[in-house]
UniProtKB/TrEMBL annotation:
Species the sequence originates in: Paramuribaculum intestinale
Transmembrane region(s): none
BP GO annotations: iron ion transport
Membrane topology, from the record: Peripheral membrane protein
Main localisation: membrane
Keyword Cell membrane: yes
Entry keyword annotation includes Cell membrane: yes
Superkingdom of source: Bacteria
GO cellular component: plasma membrane
GO MF terms, alphabetically ordered: ATP binding; ATP hydrolysis activity
A Pfam family annotated for this UniProt entry: ABC_tran
Name of this protein: ABC transporter ATP-binding protein
Length: 328
């Protein structure tokens, strides 16, 4: 049984929200959870659910309306900002102007908890900066002015800065938001590796649900004030994931861990048989264009065979799925 000391970050009965002018807006309440050491946790939920609010509360930027947050068994407030900067690094989505600062200089700011009053970088600090820039694939951007970077490039620089800070806990708000698909996967894989191989405790918010389901050790979900957590597989098996994200227009296929757009059911029926990618993609194209696809033989229906050797319609070969759809 894990003791409190073994959880780097623990939430006890947290209520989240905003207070202004004597009015309180509660976003979610009664959240109790903990982050596992050396684990990647992804916080999912629909727009406006409170993901950023929870993340900002964990960083100390917002005070919880109720409850306590503990880091290594001591309350968040008991740490000085200097102590916290060696324990927790944070990547937020805020965009700020940094005229005349290069990408490397921004990453080097991550070393500031260790560089003393004058901010003088040692050889070791320089090496750390080079290493995290290589790790995040931004070495080529080193001398670029931060203000000229694309959103995705800037996002990678901010992640590198957090890594340069060398903290056991890393909190990131939508780190994959502006990235193209391969970069999303690369970034999540990098965070997964940092958790698994370097023992970092990482929490991030994301809308990239399918990537999170493949790479996260744990999923936290927040929606309509309800918070649940568990392994991705338990979330899928229990139907909790579908409860949070599915509607009449979207279904979740737990066996393939993918979301599907629910298409209108059609009276136009085709029979399809075959195997492999050609079979799956042909069936998919038929459903998308309004056919009801059956695998039951019936001589009365257009009959399609799709295998990696080719596609036939009623025994006649067709050269592509486009030609098949045209001839149907
Ligand atoms: N400063 C604020 N004062 C009052 N309400 C706020 C403030 N910031 C956010 N909110 C509200 O709190 C709720 C949660 O917002 P939050 O940004 O945490 O959601 P989110 O899950 O991160 O959303 P998204 O996925 O769209 O980024 C929303 O209703 C939002 O309008």
């Amino acid at each position: 049984m894990a003791t409190d000391q073994e959880y780097p970050l623990q939430l006890r009965d947290i209520s989240l929200g905003y207070t202004s002018g004597g009015n309180t807006k509660t976003v979610a309440s009664c959240i109790s959870a903990s982050l596992d050491r050396g684990g990647l946790t992804c916080l999912l939920g629909p727009n406006g659910a409170g993901k950023s609010t929870l993340l900002r509360t964990l960083t100390g930027l917002l005070r919880p309306l109720a409850g306590t947050i503990e880091i290594n068994g001591s309350s968040l407030e008991s740490y000085s900002s200097s102590e916290l900067s060696k324990l927790v690094s944070v990547v937020l989505t805020d965009r700020f102007n940094l005229p005349d600062m290069t990408a490397r200089q921004l990453v080097a700011l991550g070393r500031s908890p260790y560089t003393g009053f004058w901010g003088r970088m040692s050889d070791n600090d320089e090496r750390e900066v080079d290493e995290v820039m290589a790790l995040t694939g931004i070495t080529d951007l080193a001398q670029r002015s931060v203000d000229t970077l694309s959103d995705g490039e800037r996002q990678k620089v901010m992640i590198a800065k957090a890594l340069a800070q060398h903290t056991p806990i890393i909190l990131l708000d939508e780190p994959t938001a502006f990235l193209d698909y391969p970069s999303k996967v690369e970034t999540m894989s990098l965070l997964h590796t940092l958790a698994a191989e370097r023992g970092k405790t990482i929490l991030l918010t994301t809308h990239d649900v399918e990537i999170a389901l493949q790479l996260a050790d744990r999923i936290w979900m927040l929606g309509n004030g309800v918070f649940v957590d568990g392994t991705p597989e338990d979330m899928m098996l229990s139907g909790r994931l579908a409860e949070f994200f599915c509607s009449s227009a979207i279904t979740f296929d737990a066996s393939t861990a993918t979301f599907r757009i629910a298409l209108p059911v059609s009276e136009r029926i085709v029979t399809i048989s075959g195997s492999g990618a050609a079979f799956n993609l042909t069936a998919r194209a038929l459903r998308r264009t309004g056919y009801r696809v059956t695998e039951t033989d019936s001589a009365a229906l257009p009959e399609i065979m799709a295998t990696d050797q080719g596609i036939t319609l009623n025994g006649q070969p067709v050269s592509s799925i486009a030609e098949l759809l045209q001839k149907l």
